[in-house]
Write the structure tokens for this entry.
Amino acid sequence: MANLNVAIIVKLEPDFSEGNVSYNADGTLNRAETKSILGPHSAVASNAAFYAKVRYGARIAVTTMGPPIADSALQQAQLLCDADELHLYSDRMFAGADTLATAEVLRTGISKVEGKMDIVFSGHRASDGETGQTGPQTAWKLGFTFLGNVIDYDVDVQNRTVRAKRMISLQGFYDVVEEVEAPLPVFIAIDPSYKASFNTVSQRLAFEKYRKEAKARAQDYKQYLKVFNAQQLGVDPKLVGLPGSPTIVYKVERIPKAKASRKAEVVDGASREQLAKVAAKMYEVLGGMVIK
Amino acid sequence: MKYQHLYVVIEHEDGKPVPVSLEMLGEARRLMDGYNRKYSADEKVVAVVLGHNVRKLCEELVLYGADAVIYADSPELSYARNLIDTKVISQIATNKELAAKFSDTSGFVKPRYMFFAADNIGRQLSSTVLAELESGLASDINKLVIEDLEIRHEHKTKGQAMKYEKTLEMYRPDFSGFLWTTILCLDNRNPAIEREYHPQACSIIPGVFAPIERDIARRGTIVDYVPKFDERDLHVKIINRKIVKSAVDFDSKKGVMSFGRGIKDSPEENIKLVAELAKELEAEVGVSLPISKKPFAVSEGASSTYMIPDRVIGTSGRKVAPMLYVAAGISGAMQHIAGMKEAGFVVAINPDENSPIKDECDIFIKGRMEDVIPLLLEELRKRKPAIEVRK
């Protein structure tokens, strides 16, 4: 029996890296030509879960909702965190879900993971949808305390509590790093700036051991994979997919080009003489003296 | 009426509202003024405040457009904590007696509309509150319209055309900055899945809407709510709270030097050039949204210093208003423009004269940044002494 059970919710997303991403002429994403990958924020969440494995010997389950090919996101996450169990929730019925209907599937799925769940991790937000809503909504449906923007955490396994640092920007004021303590179970949305650090020799040894294990497991990821459809999950069809989504996309339009707000003077970037004038203007704007 | 009013969840720091709170109230006021004329004068803008010693803030919110303010005052609510805040806001939103203090509430069940801030706190709070209220939520909205719509939808209306009155159209710019998606939160009228979804809720991007002018003649009702805490919910403890200076400082710098996907031909070298130019101008470095998704392979140092969400200028990042804004290799998607249009003077460096950024700058330097920046640096350095003399 593991001392700590953790799960991660991840997402297969468009790969925005150059060479893999493709844009249409009008600047919008060409989804057909763009490859898919484990989302960058999902990868950070996987690293955060791996920290729990190295430090506390946590048992890790990685879960995702998506089409059959989303199993590649599970495999990539397993490589990062040495997951013991992979869950894919896949059913045509789930398609088109908004965040509330997605959270319903994830909540139901996580309840099917072996052992009593202590911590669920998610990324900051998906890089395509960018709502950041699915994590907290899943947390709420699970009845877990939600901790967002977490940059660092540690678990007191004996006392069943977690201590986390959160980075919060208060618009118009300042940033605040807040340290909180909460009883398990919790749901942690991990901040993009999170970095695990392993300071002792035994931690580094454990790190190496699990990294090696992760490589072997990810090569053979199907052995760890469980696929659930709607019926196997036992979700209420009225609460998932399009029927279970309060919101709809009513229309998508190009954002109308705003009227030119400034009248630009065009300068030849190869002309030293013209650039000299630009340089002078820059200093003038910044409040320096102008050389005539 | 089961669903009434527009509830606006206010954020503040020690009783001082964060700017987006007043911006949301301003937009709520404009929308409900229209609503009051078109549909019914009985529905109000209701501000919701959690905190400790916030009575003065509540009075202030009336002057900024609230018809009513419901507040919960307790030391337990001094700082935002998702769990109890979600519970208290949900209690307030479903409390008929509170609404009765400022309106006729026969049949009140929940708010009709609800606004939150699309910032660290509001984004998460809106998600959990709407999960609790079991209704729909759209994030990062920058335009709102209330209208009667005819909807024909496979699931919502079973393919029939149906009229949805007083529907909130929530416009959301997508990640590219080129597309606008309109999200609606609609009741399921299809008999097979019939279900009502209210409030229609969204989170609102900071810096988009204008507050209304503070008006000391405005009157409103302030309602005190005594929250019910579950002992267990108070187990989430704030151990300490440290104010930190962000590593990225747009506010105290006179200049901002931003770069975008135009670094693509030699990313590492171009980032170096950008950093040098920024140093010369004593400017902070900003980036366009795509850059924060790390689309280029560069050194770990360049990646973790520059290709980060903290530096994003635009609707999904920061709004800046420096005296000088330099945009290198940025095409000028609307989502970026929204973050820099208040700048005093704008210089763009771009090889493509058809880029939208050309209409948003004062000087357009035509050329690739790898060619232009070294020359510009030389010219700037020639002039540097004059600046130092001034100091």
Notes: Chain B has a mean pLDDT of 93.
